[in-house]
Amino acid sequence: MAKITIALAVILTLLGLGTYFGSPDANPSKTALIPSVFGVLLLGCGLAALQPSWRKHAMHAAASIGLLGALAASGRGVMAVSKLVGGAEVNQTALVSVLLMAALCWLLVALCVNSFIAARRRQAAAAEGSDAGGQ
User: Fold this and answer.
1) How is residue 32 annotated by DSSP?
2) Which residues of the chain are under the pLDDT cut of 70?
3) Which residues have CB under 8 Å from 98's CB, separation 6+?
4) pLDDT at position 90
């Protein structure tokens, strides 16, 4: 999971930088860099998770950061889509960026939860195996 976290972190960082520096505006909004902020935080977690002694804590931190990013981006995405449906003008580059951030963060959260469940099952199976061998 550490390598997947690092890969998603790099994608989020590039998404934010691309949205900011690729903006046609002369003075783009600093909020375009929000995916990069989450990407850098997740990159730190992913790099820390490469060390076995830090893995559990780093991946729980990554899941928490991913969940915060997913909720924030989803909320902004829903607001922007509702404005768009209502006929208001919406910055489509920002909308795509927010929706991509939401999708990437939700993907990370789902993968982390799946990994946590699998780890718990492995621990339970190992505990059952050691109990049966000791009797």
Assistant:
1) G
2) 131-135
3) 73, 76, 77, 80
4) 87
pLDDT of residue 23: 83
| Burial class for 7, CB neighbours closer than 10 Å (0-12, 13-18, 19+) | middle
> Alpha helices, DSSP H only, in the chain?
2-21, 34-48, 55-85, 92-134
- The Cα 11–Cα 29 span in angstroms is 20
CA dihedral sign, ordered 42, 46, 47, 52: positive
What is the rounded distance in angstroms from the CA atom of residue 34 to the CA atom of residue 93? 14
* Three state DSSP letters for 94-105: HHHHHHHHHHHH
- pLDDT tens digit string along 87-97? 999 888 899 99
> Residue 131: its pLDDT value, please?
67
**Cα 67 from chain centroid (whole Å):** 7
- Tell me which residue of 18, 19, 58 sits closest to 42, measured CA to CA: 58
CA angle 18, 24, 26 (to 5 degrees): 105
